[in-house]
Amino acid sequence: MQPLTLAHIFEMNFTRLNKDWNAEPNAPDVRLSVDGTNVRLEFYLNSFMYNNVKQGDKATLTFYNCHKYSLNSMNDEGYYMGQYRYKDSELPWGEFYQLDTDWRGDFPQEQVILNPHTTGKRHYIFFLKDNTFECAADNFSFERLTVSASKQ
Question: Which sign does the torsion angle of CA 69, 71, 77, 81 carry?
């Protein structure tokens, strides 16, 4: 059983950050890389729901000056069954959010710490088909790659 956190006592405040894109819902093929304190996620985009995305398009999310991150195995089925510390009624599954939480006490136990600096960090969470990514970082950037640019 997950420990009771502030998110369960107070109303969850969050901002959805992906307005016209999302990860591919069946096989996003997430690739995580770390360069110093920057964490980069590369993944396929959802061409089923978004007309501005072609099949095979990829994107990257880069998180700058990360204090810590977690890419854990929580998937959509487990989330809907209540196996995560957040519930779908508090934070809808399947999007990319900035959370207004005390991430120092509200973060997955499975984590990688990249640097000791915690000042000014924001709490991000990205729900993927078979994983959930969370990090505490200064900021992020989103870059869309076209089919021709993402082929290697």
Answer: negative
